[in-house]
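Hi P.,

Sorry for the delay on this. The queue was packed all week, but I finally got your sequence through. Input first:
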Amino acid sequence: MPISRFLAFLGLLVFALSARADNIDVRAASISLREDAYALDADFDIILTPTLEDILAKGVPLNFLLEAEVIRPRWYWFNDKVAQATLQYKLSYNSLTRQYRVSLGTLYQNFATLAEAVRFFSSVRNLPVAERAALQPGNAYQAAVRMRLDVSQLPKPFQITALGSREWNLSSEWHRFAVTP
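Then the structure:
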């Protein structure tokens, strides 16, 4: 019986690893002090699956969520989350103008090709993450950043389809790096 449990666990592990979504890679990320706040600079490699490109061409917008956090590790208790920031990009296609649009809140920019639009939001500069007073000089902090397709923003029929499909679950792993003010 223990061998069969081990084989079942091993099978689930292989399935979980093969179903991992990794069409977004973090190329580089850093947090540095700018005037009154610490800001994030990050670069991502984003590869849309053919399924996502197809539904985008049919007028369904895709929402991408950038998440960043700064943690102060503690050996005696849970880690302390010092700061966090999120940013949501909306990628859409207008078939009348044949242009792609990237929206960030009420601001937007149009692009002639999908590659240009994706390139635009795959590079993040000067995203405020923490105020100057939030990080104490001399302490070591750990920062993490990731980007993912926000499946919860898709229309309900697509959310149901996305539950078990690798082509819909587009995300990066948490990219962790040290920050020392």
